[in-house]
Amino acid sequence: EELEADLSAATISKKQLKKDARKAEKAGKASQRQQQQQPQAEEADLFAANYGDVPVEEIQSKAISGRSWTDIGDLDEAAAGRSVLIRGSAQTLRPVSKKMAFVVLRQSMSTVQCVLVASADAGVSTQMVRFATSLSKESIVDVEGVVTLPKEPLKATTQQVEIQVRKVYCINRAIPTLPINLEDAARSEAEFEKAEQNGEKLVRVLQDTRLNYRAIDLRTPANQAIFRIQCHVENKFREFLFSENFIGIHSPKLIGGSSEGGASVFKLEYNGQPACLAQSPQLYKQMSICGGFGRVFEVGPVFRAEKSNTHRHLCEFIGLDAEMEIKEHYFEVCDIIDGLFVAIFKHLNENCQKELETINRQYPFEPLKYLEKTLKLTYEEGIKMLKEAGTEIEPMGDLNTEAEKKLGRLVKEKYVDILHVCNCIT
Amino acid sequence: EELEADLSAATISKKQLKKDARKAEKAGKASQRQQQQQPQAEEADLFAANYGDVPVEEIQSKAISGRSWTDIGDLDEAAAGRSVLIRGSAQTLRPVSKKMAFVVLRQSMSTVQCVLVASADAGVSTQMVRFATSLSKESIVDVEGVVTLPKEPLKATTQQVEIQVRKVYCINRAIPTLPINLEDAARSEAEFEKAEQNGEKLVRVLQDTRLNYRAIDLRTPANQAIFRIQCHVENKFREFLFSENFIGIHSPKLIGGSSEGGASVFKLEYNGQPACLAQSPQLYKQMSICGGFGRVFEVGPVFRAEKSNTHRHLCEFIGLDAEMEIKEHYFEVCDIIDGLFVAIFKHLNENCQKELETINRQYPFEPLKYLEKTLKLTYEEGIKMLKEAGTEIEPMGDLNTEAEKKLGRLVKEKYVDILHVCNCIT
After folding, report:
1. Which GO BP annotation is one of this protein's (chains A, B) (predicted)?
2. What is the pLDDT of residues A287-337, one digit of tens each?
3. What dihedral angle (degrees, nearest 10) is formed by the CA atoms of B190, B192, B194, B200?
4. Which end of chain B is flanked by fewer CB atoms within 10 Å, N or C?
5. Do B188 and B361 form a contact (C-beta atoms < 8 A)?
6. Which residues on B lie below 8 Å from A315 (Cβ)?
């Protein structure tokens, strides 16, 4: 009910909504009719045990069946011929005839096509086919079936196998009309443009709707991949620094005074005394170094009461911070940062191809390129490059954002696609 | 100056303070006298280059010498005969004669004894011996020397080797009297008791002083070890869950409403609107599960405006949280928790012996014991054990803290020292 009341905020076209509502009503009536008018047919279904809604009590820690579910992402050609059990969200439901239907199940970034064909040999009845197509999108569904290889490559799913369904159970039905249609939410700009060229108008899910129904929006493959990449970056950040003798710490976030000048603070009351939220772990990292830790890092929230609306100003973000004792030269820090970034880039390229490709489908980006040994430019070399390109910088002056970006482009042109220049420009 | 003004807050006895001050004054005068009255002696020192204060400019990224510093913790018998360079804090300075002195250097949890003996062969002058003993405690010192094996085991240091000093340079001098004496701060209760029995009164560093001078208190070996153990626990928590397909997330801490009933919230203003600090990542973990992540964990701060002063009530702490989809039985969660704790315990026992021993010296504890496959008791079995021991629990009632503790003791007695009972008591 709350979801429906909120629907006005969604950007689904009213036409679509009405259409969906009519469809749902029709399906509801049809299923009622079925139950009332076809008791004979129901009784006649020899395979009634092979499908149906699983009552809530059944999945509330009643029994341990010992069954094991295969991840949809793991279904590949090697699984052909195997009988598998999978659980996923019903992404698309496509009835072909009374005797045949397709159901695409999704689990995280992966989708697989499940094929239902009524046949006594397979234990699949026409009622079972009807049951499968009566499911609402995003319902959680268990499918048991045999993995087969399709004759032609599948375009609509990530997995290049099909499941010949033997059993299908609904664990939890979604409401008939969701505020976000996942296919709409997962489209790239290119798809929108292509549709427009064809005179077709696709539904766009806007930012507010995405945030209002975050739990649904999170299900798009790109979001699934982005969160996984974030976790990989943090893991590698920690792992690399730990291997370089850094210790992970957690510094206080509720503090007695502002921790850094320049940024605005969130103030609050702490047992009758004024307090604020940490804008940076800086002070605590430095205390750790004075405290004899030598090298520390922290991954944690940073709070800044910023009123600027740019992508560089956030009220709350996760900071990946590091601090180290320098023995004799600040190049020691540069070398660590260099090694850190190369390690992270390398890890992502080697371990997150699937995630990167998934993000790339919705939000295209250039591939990550870097040198094993990072290019180091001195300040003078950088200034010289800018000067030659017509940008004048005051002697010993700071580089502003514009100049920084330009230098990045110049470096990329000159050194063939090197995206990463270390902060060693003194 | 600030440190001195604050000394009244410290618990160092006034007697000790005066004594220290007198000593420092004397040392200062002596060094002045030395510099003023013995120019000949200074000039006559052929080995003047082998010791001295390093001027600040020298260590400000002037040059990369290519030298490498050995960690004090790595100095073992295998290093005997080798020439090493180490950097540490001067923990104790013990002049034996004009020609001989001992300096103990500390780095994190490790200490090593450095021996200075004036000898032309070694390039060590009496002036160098005097220089070394003129250093104030906690000064940062570089020592170059040859590793030798002592005739008898060393009691005062962790490393069982000595350094025959060839060169000694002070990187940064500490003020003569510090608010916390590290030896005082690192004592165990047993040492205090023993001293008292001998009629000796040792200085106790109280909690307030420790917190007021946290950067110094952090240097005690036990604190060094505790922070390292914390980091290891977090690493293993993440590593184990990640290997079980959990994804690490970071949920918002600044939120629009309270995230959990029962606990008090910190309120603040967010751009003119009421907001509060998250008391739990619960809601966001659940949204992640609904969002299709399947399994998530989070390590991050939790804020509770608690007014209770117990060790179970904290205003800010780091929560190690996990949330997972259950397929059919909550034992799936129990098994993950079980595996997680065993993995953490195992990791600590196998990789953190040095840290555990270091903590044990100041804060003795019983060794960590656990079963590879965790003992599972049903609720009924637990209640039966309590009943037999004379504690009556209402049928199907919750166990209160007292009963929980008692059951822990009973399990430990019955199953020979098993500390870990899984939360599977339904």
Report:
1. aspartyl-tRNA aminoacylation
2. 999 999 999 999 999 999 988 878 778 999 999 999 999 999 988 998 999
3. 170
4. N
5. yes
6. 254, 270
Domain with CATH 2.40.50.140 in chain A: 39-172
Do residues B86 and B107 lie in contact, with contact meaning Cβ atoms separated by under 8 Å? yes
The mean per-residue pLDDT over the stretch B166-184 comes to 95
User: How many alpha carbons lie under 13 Å from residue A345 in its C-beta half-sphere?
Assistant: 17
| ipTM entry | 0.87
**Domain B38-172 listed as CATH 2.40.50.140:** yes
B5 interfacial to chain A (CB closer than 8 Å): no
Residue A389 to chain B, least CA–CA distance (Å): 31
Query: Which class is domain A39-172?
Result: mainly beta
pLDDT of residue A309: 79
Domain with CATH 3.30.930.10 in chain A: 223-330
Q: Which of residues 267 through 306 in chain B touch A, CB cutoff 8 A?
A: 267-271, 277, 287-288, 290-294, 300-301, 303
Numbers of helices and strands, H then E, in chain A: 14, 12
Per the CB < 8 Å rule, is A287 touching B215?
yes
Q: Distance (Å, rounded) from C-alpha A209 to C-alpha A178?
A: 11
Cα–Cα distance for residue pair A212/A206, rounded to 1 Å: 10
Other beta carbons within 10 angstroms of residue A289's beta carbon come to 18
Topology of domain B223-359, per CATH? BirA Bifunctional Protein; domain 2 (3.30.930)
Which uninterrupted H or E stretch holds A21?
Answer: helix A14-37
B37, with CB counted inside 10 A (0-12, 13-18, 19+), is exposed
What is the Cα–Cα distance from A389 to A383, expressed in whole angstroms?
10
Residues from chain A that touch B271, judged by Cβ atoms under 8 A, are 307
pLDDT in tens, B84-132: 999 999 999 999 999 999 999 999 999 999 999 999 999 999 999 999 9
Answer yes or no: do A291 and B63 touch at CB < 8 A: no
- Contact residues on chain B for A316, CB-CB shorter than 8 A: 252-254
Phi and psi at A83, nearest 5°, equal -95, 130
Q: Give the phi and the psi of residue B367 in degrees, each rounded to 5.
A: -65, 150
Q: B85: nearest CA in chain A?
A: A327
Does the beta carbon of B59 lie under 8 angstroms from any beta carbon of chain A?
A: yes
- Domain A223-330 matching CATH 3.30.930.10: the answer reads yes
Q: Map tokens 């065993």 to a residue.
A: B342
Which two three-digit tokens encode residue A73? 């992402």
Place of tokens 């009973």: B410
Q: Which residues contact B80 (CB under 8 A, 6 or more apart)?
A: B147, B148, B149, B161
B361 and B189 in contact (C-beta within 8 Å)?
Answer: no
In chain B, CATH 3.30.930.10 covers 223-359
